[in-house]
TrEMBL record:
Family: Belongs to the NAD(P)-dependent epimerase/dehydratase family. Dihydroflavonol-4-reductase subfamily.
Transmembrane parts of this sequence: 6-29
Residue span, NAD-dependent epimerase/dehydratase domain: 14-203
Protein's recorded name: NAD-dependent epimerase/dehydratase domain-containing protein
Organism: Bionectria ochroleuca
Pfam families named among the record's database cross-references: Epimerase (PF01370)
Length: 345
């Protein structure tokens, strides 16, 4: 792997936004292990101090890792200082609010893309920009229907229409706002690419659900840790989404790294969904690794999503840059998600 040509020189400084997040923290660690320097953009440096400890401590002490505050992702000029001197940007941060008003979720998500792209246009050191998209930008991932085939121009436009339906804003808006914000943000990325002569290359990596090793207790809590919901029997999170796709967080992080480093990957939408799975698949693994624990009953008539998606480019990048022949197995990833110091029975 060390002999591979890279789009940015070894030791370059990269900016990772939302650096304390589940995925972003792994992206940060993988870049550091490869000998790159990382500037982690976080909302509050003091509250993010754990990112300078544990597996990150030696890098922080050597100066390879630094944190910078970007409290308002969508503010004009939000990234002007953070972006100075970086060779690559990985925009992983997203608006985490679950609220009914789309103006509080979608609008700042789009503005964040504009802010970071405008900053990048003014910084001559920037050579690569990678944005974290989402599978829900390309498909509704609906249960019990044929979702068809996902291609380069697949968009889940219906969710955007649902989110921007006229007020009063209610629960349906709140449920639609996250996927709508991811879709709107990615469309803004490609709009910016189309309308400007960019001096840097842009790629988008789109995961579905993430599983795998948490690097902090905060990665165990929250609505997006799907395995923990099954572990705890949180049916209110499980029932609305019986089946989806799950990728190991280290695999998806590696694809983000490759999307920066690989000079051949340009203007790519890398669907990085991982394994198709139903809750019953997760529960079977949990019963195997925790035979003494009682879990919720299996769902009757389990059905995987009916959808076709080509992930060959993402798998090829895993092979090229991580020497892996495919996705980490669902079982191994679930084990990593559960067998750690942060999950307390």
């Amino acid at each position: 792997m060390s002999s591979l040509d890279t789009a940015i020189p070894a030791g370059s400084l990269v900016l990772v936004t939302g650096a304390t997040g589940f995925l972003a923290s792994h992206i940060t660690l993988q870049f550091l292990k490869r000998g790159f320097r990382v500037r982690g953009a976080v909302r509050d440096v003091k509250k993010s101090s754990w990112l300078l400890d544990g597996p990150f401590k030696s890098y922080a002490e050597s100066g390879a890792l630094e944190l910078v505050a970007v409290p308002d992702l969508g503010a004009d000029g939000a990234y002007d200082e953070a972006i100075k001197g970086v060779a690559a940007i990985l925009n992983v941060a997203y608006v985490t609010k679950i609220v009914p008003d789309p103006n509080e979720v979608i609008t700042p998500s789009v503005n964040a893309v504009k802010s970071i792209m405008n900053a990048a246009m003014k910084e001559p050191s920037v050579k690569r920009a990678v944005f974290t998209g989402s599978a829900v930008s390309a498909s509704a991932l609906a249960q019990g229907v044929d979702n068809g085939t996902i291609g380069r121009d697949s968009w889940n436009d219906a969710v955007l229409e649902a989110a921007w339906a006229p007020p009063p804003y209610g629960l349906s808006h709140a449920m639609a706002n996250y996927p709508a914000s991811k879709l709107a943000a990615e469309k803004e990325v490609w709009k910016f690419v189309e309308e400007n002569e960019l001096p840097f290359t842009v790629n988008v990596v789109s995961p579905a659900g993430l599983t795998g090793e948490p690097l902090n207790k905060t990665h165990i809590e929250g609505p997006a840790n799907w395995v923990v919901h099954a572990y705890r029997g949180n049916k209110q999170f499980m029932d609305p989404m019986l089946a989806t796709f799950y990728g190991d967080v280290k695999d998806v992080a590696a694809i983000h790294v490759a999307a920066v480093l690989d000079p051949e990957i340009k203007n790519a939408r890398l669907q990085s969904w991982g394994h198709s799975a139903h809750w019953n698949d997760i529960l079977a693994i949990l019963r195997k690794i925790r035979p003494q624990k009682k879990f919720v009953d299996d769902y009757p008539d389990p059905q995987h999503l009916k959808i076709s998606v080509d992930q060959s480019d993402s798998i090829a990048l895993l092979k090229k840059w991580s020497d892996k022949d495919g996705w980490t197995s669902l079982e191994d990833s679930v084990v990593d998600n559960i067998n750690n110091q942060y999950l307390v029975d």
